[in-house]
Amino acid sequence: MNLIKKRILITAGEPASISSEITIKAIKKLKKESNSELILITDPSLIKYELKNLNQLAELNILDKKLNFKDYKKDFINIIPIKLNEITIPGILNKKNSDFVLKSIKKSVDFLLQKKANAVVTNPINKFIMKSSNFKFNGHTEYLGHLSKFNKKPIMMLESEKLRVVPLTTHIPISSVSKKINTKMIIEKINILNNELINIYKIKNPKIYISGLNPHSGDGGKIGKEELTLIYPAIRKLKKLGLNVKGPFPGDTLFQKHKIKEYDVAVCMYHDQALIPIKTLYSGNIINTTLGLDFIRTSPDHGTALDIAGMKKANPNSLILAIKKAEDLIHKKYVK
Fold first, then answer.
1. Could you identify which of 171, 183, 197, 281 might form a hypothetical disulfide with 138, taking C-beta atoms 3.0 to 4.6 angstroms apart as the criterion?
2. Partners of 62 in beta bridges
């Protein structure tokens, strides 16, 4: 597939959030910088409301999904329309619109699986309100893994210009982490990560540093046995398979400035072990990329920011970076 034009879908996200605001700001910013077709899957009323709120002028182009994007118009905000179940109020969640959020994601993935688009950039969703409407997944990443047809073991990777991190477990209680981790899972996920870094990121021999689970990486078994019984055996097996892995490193030294320069990605045992360092060091300049799917997916690193929804304060930078990363990955994946 030798692409010249990049077609990127942008999901609606939570309709009561900052998603429409940052999307409008991002499209405006990228108009002169990007040659991609950026297409929203949302209710046009959300965009019209936000344009008025931001006191901005822009023309909307409502696409006919049967035309396979042939009616796309440059310098317009191009939208594949889906309808809200109820009118939304900025900052106030309404579970009756949860189906709308899911429809935007699913429709995006359908287009990707049909090879009608090249990547999806997802706006933030609110997992609490989704779960109150029988959403059975721990998060966005897990739902995308469910929708993916062949590659169904997603890996969440957050990256900035200087640091990449992967949590092996994501949206589960800390009390469940040690039960979820096992040698087979560590080997499987790091193999997928390594292959994606080689095939999509074009890193020839990725340097992967792996954290321990316990303080001081268990201190030789004195503070926990998981390093000895689970993590070390996984690292030994991965080395035998030819992967460039090291560890386990204590979590409190893995992100020192000199250490960060040594590796391509840090793999951590749980969500906050990975996300606290990168969000502390590089907040606002981070992209969430999901590896291990049939398609390219990126997203901003932040949540719905309901507290500032409708207040014209939202910073679109992370969404802009996510769109640019999607463009970069499309080029690396498809253009020979």
1. 171
2. 79
Q: Do 1-154+293-336 and 156-287 come out as alike in CATH topology?
A: yes
Structure tokens at 57: 């002028």
pTM over 0.90: yes
Tell me the two tokens of residue 136: 């059975």
Identify the CA nearest to 241 among candidates 202, 190, 169.
Answer: 190
Fold of 1-154+293-336: Isopropylmalate Dehydrogenase (3.40.718)
Residue 267, H or E segment: strand 265-268
Report the alpha-carbon distance of residue 215 to residue 84 in Å, rounded: 47
CATH number of 156-287: 3.40.718.10
Nearest Cα neighbor of 304 from 88, 16, 100 is 16
Looking up tokens 């996920």 gives 189
* Residue 155 CB contacts under 8 Å (≥ 6 apart), including other chains: 166, 189, 192, 193, 196, 290, 291, 292
Residues near 179 by Cβ (< 8 Å), separated by ≥ 6?
none
Joined together, the tokens standing for residue 53 give 């709120």
Q: Cβ–Cβ contacts within 10 Å for residue 258, how many? A: 6
Task: Write out the two tokens for 221.
Answer: 């078994």
Domain-wise residue ranges, the chain: 1-154+293-336, 156-287
Q: pLDDT tens string for the chain (336 positions)?
A: 444 579 999 999 999 999 999 999 999 999 888 889 999 999 999 999 999 999 999 999 999 978 889 999 999 999 999 999 999 999 999 999 999 999 999 999 999 999 999 999 999 999 989 988 889 998 899 999 999 999 999 999 999 999 999 999 999 999 999 999 999 999 999 999 999 999 999 999 999 999 999 999 999 999 999 999 999 999 999 999 999 999 999 999 999 999 999 999 999 999 999 999 999 999 989 999 999 999 999 999 999 999 999 999 999 999 999 999 999 999 988 765
Handedness of CA 314, 60, 110, 87 (dihedral sign): positive
Q: How far apart are CA 212 and CA 7, in angstroms?
A: 40
